[in-house]
Amino acid sequence: MTDGSVDPFTSDHEQVVFAHDPESGLRAIIALHSTALGPGLGGTRFHPYASTADALRDVLALSRGMTYKNALAGLDLGGGKAVIIGDPRQDKSEALLRAYGRFVESLGGRYVTACDVGTFSEDMDVVARESRHVTGRTPEHGGAGDSSVLTAYGVHQGMRACSAHLWGTESLEGRVVGVSGVGKVGVHLVGHLVDEGAKVIVTDVWEPSLDRIRDLHPEVGVASSTESMLAGEAGDLEIYAPCALGGAVTAEVARTTGARIICGAANNQLADDDVARVLTERGVLHAPDFVVNAGGVIQVADEREGFDFERARRRAHRIGATTLEVLEQAHREGVTTTEAAERLAERRIHDVARLRRIHLRNG
To answer: Looking at residues 36-61, what average pLDDT do you find?
Structure first.
């Protein structure tokens, strides 16, 4: 490639597929990072990337995160992800989604898709008209529906675990929590925090999302921007929850934030690997996103057994215990929480994938 993009052949991914259907306007990339534990499950992000290189960079990082996320969630699933390049408000159509479904089907079950930023359960119903390998469908079609419900629930459990590790109590009552991004996941997280008695401040670039928060929770503060929220415009933050797109926690944020805990739903929220080290050196407790935001994948994965919300919720509740295990291991070993989480995931991948060397006689 000549445009400075990431070369998929230098990554550790198993397979990267570029999909293009000129008539429907589909331009998509499907990335499978690992199928050691099972088919790669991960959502489809529909986003107006500035370039194919940006889209490729995002899908490679997101699919790698799904490998760790699914492993730590205890699922027999590998890591995959897809991105569709375009503006979902203008470019999404039945023809495009069905064309995308044909490409998903062409992978023969190696990749199982679901919702992500820019896609919804109703979209998955359309994709499923062309592919059997779709989760996150509407309840009317036997699906789990909106996976943001348990994504937010899992982040809340992870946040409570961080509080227990740092302050000796799971309770978030009275804590000042800033939520950046109150879309599908953020709005549910705000509800959990308000119910627990936290003082919540929110920000979002999409004004209708803020209007919805004002209607649902008039007691919640609204900051003019994430930067002003982090600077203490509406009060000194104790917990920062990035819940929009990735890269929100930059080196500058890591060096200057007054928050003691960073725990949010956004994927790949650390701008680069060095950010984790800076946070650790400053004593800021960071809950790796691929640990705490696994509730959504737990929810859609449950469809494969015949969806039961309470069963999925009980599984998502374990995110708190997993988060605590990661934090304690990081403290014991003197490593970043990201390193500790990756080590735990890689240990499970190794131990379980090893079993596939045991031959099972057929017939």
So the answer is: 96
Confidence of residue 234 (pLDDT cuts 50, 70, 90): low
Q: pTM of the full predicted structure?
A: 0.91
Report the chain's mean pLDDT, rounded to a whole number. Answer: 94
Q: What is the pLDDT of residue 360?
A: 77
Spatial distance between the Cα atoms of 93 and 12, rounded to a whole number of angstroms: 33
Regarding whether 257 and 120 lie in a shared domain, the answer is no
Rounded to the nearest 10°, the torsion over CA 124, 130, 133, 135 is: 20
Indicate which residue of 69, 81, 92, 184 is catalytic: 81
Do 161 and 102 fall into the same domain? Answer: no
Give the residue among 230, 227, 190, 245 at the shortest CA–CA distance from 212: 190
The rounded distance, in Å, linking the Cα atoms of 58 and 83 is 8
Full domain range(s) for residue 88:
8-65+77-141
Q: Residue 42 and residue 265: Cα distance in Å, rounded?
A: 15
- Whether the Cβ atoms of residue 105 and residue 77 lie closer than 8 Å to each other: no
Q: How many structural domains compose the chain?
A: 2
Binned at pLDDT 50, 70 and 90, residue 2 comes out as very low
216: phi then psi, degrees, rounded to nearest 5: -75, -40
Angstrom distance (rounded) from CA 162 to CA 37: 28
Task: Establish whether 92 is a catalytic residue.
Answer: no
Cα–Cα distance measured from residue 77 to residue 300, given in angstroms and rounded to the nearest whole number: 12
Q: What pLDDT score was predicted for residue 1? A: 33
The confidence score (pLDDT) of residue 357 equals 78
* Residue position matching structure tokens 């790949």: 268
